Amino acid sequence: MGNVNTRLITLTRPYPKQEQFFTADSRYIAYGGARGGGKSWAARVKAVLLALEYDGIQILLLRRDLHSLRENHIYPLLSLLKDIAKYKAATREFVFKNQSRIVLGYCASDKDVLQYQGQSYDVIFMEEATQFSEFAFSALTESNRSSGMLKKPFSPRMYFTCNPGGIGHGWVKRLFVDKRYKNSERAADYTFIPSRVYDNPYLLENSPDYVRSLENLPPNRRKAMLDGNWDVFEGQYFSEFDRSIHVVEPFDLPGDISRYIAIDYGLDMLACLWIGVDRYGHAFVYRELYQSGLILSEAAQKIQEYNCGEQIRAAYAPPDLFFRRQETGQSAIDIFAAHGLSFSKSNNNRIQGWYSIKEWLKPVPDTDGNLRPRLRIFKNCINLIRTLPALRFDEKNPNDTANAPHELTHAPDALRAFTASVSIPYTPDIDTLTKTAKPVFEEEYTAFLNYGT
């Protein structure tokens, strides 16, 4: 580091998860998942260490708003870097004697990110990344390139700190938690370091009341803020969804089960679900088809291929597919019919359909008093499992789901076509059933309830 320092910087020793964050060297590194994990400290210190180690490195550290930028970074850095780096208040940047620079900025809206277009930063930190839109993230990647000012080799990279929730929940979860990549994205470029308050010995020792406050949050918020559960977040529509009870390992369905198909179709995506309903009113989504770019005839062929010759009791499609095109006189349903697929028109009442999904997700007691949901999803239905809990409330209509990001709506819309069209069967209590059935019925009934557990 040459003669950069005029005094020593005294830092507390990072704990293991922070050390992982400091030593990771992939293209994109995310750290977080729950409150109290020491994320801001780690981001701030990592930026300083990089500035001291790499002469001429250009670093951009961003928060969503100016107030949190000041409180979390400007004021602490003024104290930490006294006599080591010069702070320029007009441009909110720390300039080091080795020509390294830490620029501190904020983006209150997507248009604010455009101010960084055309600029080059070797390193970009996105603090509380889930508060940024995917557009903001994508725009910033264009500025994350070599500044040309470094005195030794360094590969440009981006660092993220994050908690579940916020406008950017979807893209952060896709890249770092679900690890679903598209186009030229590569798994090797992404590192996720989960952290919880229990990983932070300083808080545990010095702020036990804060830890208890997290432990006393309402159940769903506690799952997100204390446990770092990415299936739960503020503004979530289907807060009932719980991966531990709604997702099961695939198993052989009983022979007398009633099988249904429900679809949502567009050129951007065909979502088709296969749902089995047993005689006790329990549903299992056991297969999915999720593919984009299919014209109607290709979609019909794919559905037939995936159906594997199964006997389907009913198939449901949204009403817009029944409209006849003026130029051809044919509807989408006509084309499906020409390929051997017969669909009934689903109930298109969105809110009724969403409410029905909530009822199917609601756990009901089994013969042992354990709560089990009426609807369970096979683990292989990855897109329904991914998108259903990601739906948010519509800001203009709190009874409806938001229609953006649109990619999240396809599989849930297909499920809605089923739940809005098929009533939840009446399930009498076990005492009533065993009084009118054979003695073996209770054992048989319990076996059905235990499928997939």
Walk me through the structure.
By secondary structure, the chain is α/β, with parallel strands linked by helices. 32% of the residues lie in helices and 19% in strands. The strands form three sheets. The protein has an eight-stranded mixed sheet, sandwiched between helices. Helix 12 packs across helix 14 (410-419). The longest helix has 15 residues, at 39-53. The radius of gyration is 27 Å and the shape is elongated.
By CATH, the architecture of the largest domain is named 3-Layer(aba) Sandwich
Shape: elongated
Largest sheet: 8 strands, mixed
- Average pLDDT over all residues: 87
The CATH homologous superfamily of the largest domain is called P-loop containing nucleotide triphosphate hydrolases
